[in-house]
Design brief:
The complex is a heterodimer of chains A (about 200) and B (about 250).
Chain A: H1 21-25, E1 53-61, E2 72-76, E3 97-101, E4 108-114, E5 119-120, E6 126-127, E7 131-136, E8 144-150, H2 159-162, E9 174-179, E10 182-184, E11 187-188, E12 198-199
Parallel strand pairs in A: 1-10, 1-11, 8-9
Antiparallel strand pairs in A: 1-4, 2-3, 2-7, 5-6, 7-8, 9-10
Chain B: H1 30-33, E1 40-41, H2 46-49, E2 81-90, E3 100-104, E4 130-134, E5 140-146, E6 151-153, E7 159-161, E8 164-169, E9 178-184, H3 202-206, E10 209-210, E11 223-226, E12 229-231
Parallel strand pairs in B: 2-11, 2-12, 9-10
Antiparallel strand pairs in B: 2-5, 3-4, 3-8, 6-7, 8-9
The chains are: A mainly beta (about 200), B mainly beta (about 250).
Bound molecules: fe (iii) ion.
Fe (iii) ion binds near residues 161, 164 and 166 of chain B.
């Protein structure tokens, strides 16, 4: 026998966000405008922030190819220089955090933000510009983490993308440019072209 | 040094046994919505170790009082009055201070105020069903609310959700993000619920069941339930703060 790790706790288990997650996180989307004086995460940027303003559109598909109408997403990112809020020199007009949802009728989501800069790794090396995304919905037991990279950036030395053994899957993390400042990024929960989901 | 300037080390890798598997056919919607590939694992980076912070400026005094917040204090919601309180801790038992906790729930009849909920239990005109608060410097939070009703849902022929409150917790790192549910001590529907059953370990499911806490209840006013939440920790060691190669 050994000493027990008495001071160690297990992380609380996740449970699905369910179909009504918007009530708590995006009351206006749930039809409950005015529940809070101010909702959080309505935009990751304020007017006048430095950098290129971009719009990312997409859908979240299930294993049958049907776009979810109830998915909610959160994004987290640094400013155009790669600095996160709170870090020295970070752009005060970038909160970095956004909540957005699949449209209840069409399933399309829209994220309007600033294109992030590259982020240094602990101990050296750089990560290519990316936005972290977290997806919850009915039928998703534990929130799914993924990242949005950009096809018009140099992704060749990104340490996370390099770890993907099956090279065709790298594509699932890269937003495609549709027009100046407009990208498409679909999330596929299951099946052919399943998005690479992360554990980090 | 401020928290954001000091390297607190990588996040402790998620113990996936703590959580439900993605695929659990008794909860039918998981069948088409569960990824089949293994997750891509890597040590956390600043993208997961940093996270949004929310200040008191956005939070109103009634935001954590679901009995009164929908009517801005005009008229109380119907139902059994309860205090839900507890602490947000990390895996090492350290409190997580000043972090946002959000909840949402059905009303006393089991009906949600949501454009998509069509259950015939009536809406309570005085109940919105959402609340939020920041933990204090000791990681403590509390909500005043009413006990939500159980409700039926379309899954197997006759599935009912036990009484529950949905919880959303941030922590200080985006990689700590967690959504879960609080159940109530003694509810016989917990053992029949396929969503509760997605959690394989009984002790882990028990950790979502809040006990009645008479010490915190207020005579002639409300009962209390205690619900602690544990988020991922960070692997800070004495070696972690040293520069590479020193
Ligand atoms: Fe529910």
């Amino acid at each position: 026998m050994v000493q027990p790790l008495n001071d160690r706790l297990m992380e609380s288990p996740s449970q699905t966000a369910g179909p009504y997650v918007h009530i708590g996180c995006m009351p206006t989307h749930a039809g409950n405008a005015g529940a809070y004086a101010e909702e959080i995460g309505t935009s990751p940027i304020e007017d006048g922030c430095a950098g290129e303003i971009i719009t990312i559109k997409g859908e979240v598909f299930d294993g049958t190819g049907w776009a979810l109408r109830d998915a909610m997403m959160e994004s987290w990112q640094p400013d155009a220089a790669g600095k996160f809020p709170g870090q020295d020199g970070a752009d005060p007009k970038v909160s970095g955090f956004c909540r957005f949802a699949a449209d209840g009728t069409t399933g399309e989501f829209t994220l309007r933000t600033v294109k992030p800069g590259p982020v240094p790794m602990r101990g050296g090396g750089m990560q290519a510009p990316h936005i972290s995304v977290w997806v919850v919905a009915r039928g998703i037991n534990t929130g799914l983490q993924t990242r949005i990279y950009f096809e018009d950036e140099d992704n060749s030395n990104d340490p996370l993308l390099k770890r993907i053994e099956q090279r065709p899957r790298v594509d699932t993390l890269i937003a495609k440019k549709e027009a100046d400042g407009v990208y498409r990024f679909n999330i596929v929960l299951q099946g052919k072209d399943e998005t690479v989901f992360l554990d980090l | 040094m401020t928290d954001s300037a000091r390297d607190l080390g990588p996040l402790v890798p998620r113990n996936r046994d703590a959580h439900p598997p993605a695929y659990y056919p008794d909860y039918k919607t998981t069948v088409p919505r569960s990824p089949q590939w293994a997750l891509l694992s890597m040590e956390s980076t600043p993208s997961e170790e940093t996270g949004p912070r929310f200040g008191h400026n956005k939070i109103q005094p009634l935001d954590n009082n679901l009995i009164l917040n929908w009517t801005k204090g005009e008229s109380p919601a119907v139902g059994e009055r309860i205090l839900v309180h507890g602490r947000v801790l990390d895996e090492f038992g350290r409190p997580v201070p000043h972090t946002l906790v959000e909840i949402w729930q059905a009303n006393a009849g089991g009906r949600y105020r949501h454009v998509k909920d069509t259950y015939f239990a009536p809406l309570d005109p005085n109940f919105g069903g959402c609340g939020r608060t920041l933990t204090d410097e000791n990681g403590y939070y509390e909500f005043l609310t009413i006990r939500p009703g159980a409700y039926p849902w379309p899954n197997r022929a006759n599935d009912w959700r036990p009484m529950h409150i949905h919880f959303s917790i941030f922590g200080h790192s985006f990689g700590q993000r967690l959504i879960s549910q609080m159940y109530f001590e003694g509810d016989p529907l917990i053992n029949l619920c396929p969503i509760a059953a997605t959690i394989k370990s009984r002790s882990q499911l028990d950790s979502l069941v809040a006990p009645l806490d008479m010490a915190k209840s207020r005579p002639m006013d409300f009962l209390a339930y205690k619900f602690d939440i544990v988020l991922r920790g960070r692997r800070q060691t004495m070696f972690e703060n040293k520069l590479e190669g020193m």
